Amino acid sequence: MLPRGRPRALGAAALLLLLLLLLIGFFLLGWDPECERLEPDGRAGDLGCSRCPLTPRVPSDGRLRGASALHGDPLAGHGVHNHSACNPQPPLPPKCELLHVAIVCAGYNSSREVITLVKSMLFYRRNPLHLHLVTDTVARNILETLFRTWMVPALGPQISWIPNKHYSGLYGLMKLVLPGVLPPGLTRVIVLDTDVTFASDIAELWALFAHFSDKQVIGLVENQSDWYLGNLWKNHRPWPALGRGFNTGVILLLLDQLRQVGWEQMWKLTARRELLTLTATSLADQDIFNAVIKERPELLQPLPCVWNLQLSDHTLAERCYSEAADLKVIHWNSPKKVRVKNKHAEFFRNFYLTFLGYDGNLLRRELFGCPSQPPPEAEQLQRALAQLDEEDACFEFRQQRLTVHRVHITFLPHKPPPPRPHDVTLVAQLSMDRLQMLEALCRHWPGPMSLALYLTDAEAQQFLHFVEASPVLSARQDVAYHVVYREGPLYPVNQLRNVALAQALTPYVFLSDIDFLPAYSLYDYLRASIEQLELGGRRKAALVVPAFETLRYRFSFPSSKAELLALLDAGSLYTFRYHEWPQGHAPTDYARWREAQAPYRVQWAADYEPYVVVPRDCPRYDPRFVGFGWNKVAHIVELDAQEFELLVLPEAFTIHLPHAPSLDISRFRSSSAYRDCLQALKEEFHQDLSRRYGAAALKYLTALQQPRSPA
């Protein structure tokens, strides 16, 4: 028989086990005592958080773990309170509500950074976005072109009066004046730095406006370093801030209420007072925002730390998250950017690189269920594409011609040449497999260049690193590189030429190809020839630069016409493509050029395609010619139809270097269907010439009388 006390002991153990199981269950289900409150009738009521997070990964008050224990609560005693440990999740905005985002962007580098930011926003977003871009002239020129082909608007006021030494430059202060420069009817906006990357839907961030009280007008995440505590190094004197201060890489602004409280006067008075003892801002607008919040903490709504995970040199960001699912916005707020070192640097770097190389064409998707009026050019494009016959053997040629490519002009920092009346820009286009030509070209041509590169998003970054690693290329600030992002199966050669031609800034252009090296003296010789021939008036002339080629990969480049003729006689050089396509350059009359001492005029002939120097406002290339064949021939026909003289220069020359054949020329050689499509494009081109020039276009029919091997 069991002792009397045993059942009682077993019952107590069972009760303890039950309580333990209940506690484990409550933890797994996300129970939190702070998720309950008492209703007036004494019943437990829900705060509206429905269920707390499964694990207490992210402090919902937006502050770093342990911050208050280390340094005291910076908001204590100021009437500002953070959210409870289980903050109610505000509802997302309606599916088709327009979300407004303001981005300050200045200069070439920021114009590249903003693309990665926009990609990350578009990837996750479920709402239509309106971007308010506050730019300088450089960024505006770049982004207007980019967003015209990517359908995003632009805006550009400026400010310049507050001394500033922040690495982002003067435009690091523009966020202070946004309530005054953004449209008066705009009531709320998310403000972003260009060096942030989204890991979540921006609508979740927009939803946090619901937490603002009547007095709160600015939403910020706490600064995730000890910068404002002033203890990073000896004699470090930061601007005043509340505790650790707050970072302005991500801001929520209630614009109408900021205007009502006199924000402009408020921050200017604070800045002027602090500048009496502090000679400049160190962290641009962030210093001034923090100084104002120090005085007026009731204006602030703290945001959860995951909405601005700051990867600075002294970051404490690892206190904010415990797994990747916590992340919402990653902020590269160090001058080192992705090279900054921190605990999980490789993870964050790979996340950023994913968007950096992501094909932006894939983000042109519409939002289902949210009808919007496309721009007129988009409607015209859709109508033109709808008229194409997919059963047409030449469908891909016609589709490629209509393709609108994203274009990023001046992809790298560029210093425009000073205005000179006879200056010449070399214009060319290339793809990734011709990058190796750039250094040699820069050595041969000391003047300005405008080059269009046909690249994927990932290749554009490889190109950037290629230039940065090259002492020759990185030293040249007068070379403008324009990235045209790849789309479609055929090489859009004439579209690329038109992009490079449109961005030339000098009165004249030398229309070349990337696999040609000009004579070392050609740049100076062309400028002198333009002046001597008095081409600045009404005289319309195309100056022909005779083309040659070598079949040798190792080749001693001639320094003069005499040396070139010696190499020609020795069989080391040839007139360009005389074996395969003699009619392409025969009208140049190389025999006459050997003896010429002065420029001489030649007549247009069928299939003539010389390399020429023309005024910048010359006719554009015909975009219907994609892939290989007749792309330059058609342009010379257009010049002749517009009565340009063809003048051969006696001391000029350019030499083609050998290389592997392109994919398009291989297709041309192997496919009769490809050649048939090219012939069809020629016939359509001549029909268009006849409509524009009438009887004067009849002579060009000879170019179509018999199919030949086009260049």
TrEMBL record:
Pfam family, one: Glyco_transf_49
Pathway: Protein modification; protein glycosylation
Catalytic activity: 3-O-[beta-D-GlcA-(1->3)-beta-D-Xyl-(1->4)-Rib-ol-P-Rib-ol-P-3-beta-D-GalNAc-(1->3)-beta-D-GlcNAc-(1->4)-(O-6-P-alpha-D-Man)]-Thr-[protein] + UDP-alpha-D-xylose = 3-O-[alpha-D-Xyl-(1->3)-beta-D-GlcA-(1->4)-beta-D-Xyl-(1->4)-Rib-ol-P-Rib-ol-P-3-beta-D-GalNAc-(1->3)-beta-D-GlcNAc-(1->4)-(O-6-P-alpha-D-Man)]-Thr-[protein] + UDP + H(+); 3-O-{beta-D-GlcA-(1->[3)-alpha-D-Xyl-(1->3)-beta-D-GlcA-(1->](n)-4)-beta-D-Xyl-(1->4)-Rib-ol-P-Rib-ol-P-3-beta-D-GalNAc-(1->3)-beta-D-GlcNAc-(1->4)-O-6-P-alpha-D-Man}-L-Thr-[protein] + UDP-alpha-D-xylose = 3-O-{(1->[3)-alpha-D-Xyl-(1->3)-beta-D-GlcA-(1->](n+1)-4)-beta-D-Xyl-(1->4)-Rib-ol-P-Rib-ol-P-3-beta-D-GalNAc-(1->3)-beta-D-GlcNAc-(1->4)-O-6-P-alpha-D-Man}-L-Thr-[protein] + UDP + H(+); 3-O-{(1->[3)-alpha-D-Xyl-(1->3)-beta-D-GlcA-(1->](n)-4)-beta-D-Xyl-(1->4)-Rib-ol-P-Rib-ol-P-3-beta-D-GalNAc-(1->3)-beta-D-GlcNAc-(1->4)-O-6-P-alpha-D-Man}-L-Thr-[protein] + UDP-alpha-D-glucuronate = 3-O-{beta-D-GlcA-(1->[3)-alpha-D-Xyl-(1->3)-beta-D-GlcA-(1->](n)-4)-beta-D-Xyl-(1->4)-Rib-ol-P-Rib-ol-P-3-beta-D-GalNAc-(1->3)-beta-D-GlcNAc-(1->4)-O-6-P-alpha-D-Man}-L-Thr-[protein] + UDP + H(+)
Signal peptide (residue range): 1-30
Keywords: Glycoprotein, Glycosyltransferase, Golgi apparatus, Manganese, Membrane, Metal-binding, Multifunctional enzyme, Signal, Signal-anchor, Transferase, Transmembrane, Transmembrane helix
Membrane topology qualifier: Single-pass type II membrane protein
InterPro entries registered for this protein in UniProt: Glyco_trans_8 (IPR002495), Nucleotide-diphossugar_trans (IPR029044), Xyl/GlcA_transferase (IPR051292)
Gene Ontology molecular function: any one: xylosyltransferase activity
Cofactor: Mn(2+)
Compartments in which it is found: Golgi apparatus membrane
Primary subcellular site in the record, as a coarse category: Golgi
Family (UniProt): In the N-terminal section; belongs to the glycosyltransferase 8 family. In the C-terminal section; belongs to the glycosyltransferase 49 family.
Biological function: Bifunctional glycosyltransferase with both alpha-1,3-xylosyltransferase and beta-1,3-glucuronyltransferase activities involved in the maturation of alpha-dystroglycan (DAG1) by glycosylation leading to DAG1 binding to laminin G-like domain-containing extracellular proteins with high affinity and in a phosphorylated-O-mannosyl trisaccharide dependent manner. Elongates the glucuronyl-beta-1,4-xylose-beta disaccharide primer structure by adding repeating units [-3-Xylose-alpha-1,3-GlcA-beta-1-] to produce a heteropolysaccharide. Supports the maturation of DAG1 more effectively than LARGE1.
Identification of the protein by name: Glycosyltransferase-like protein LARGE2
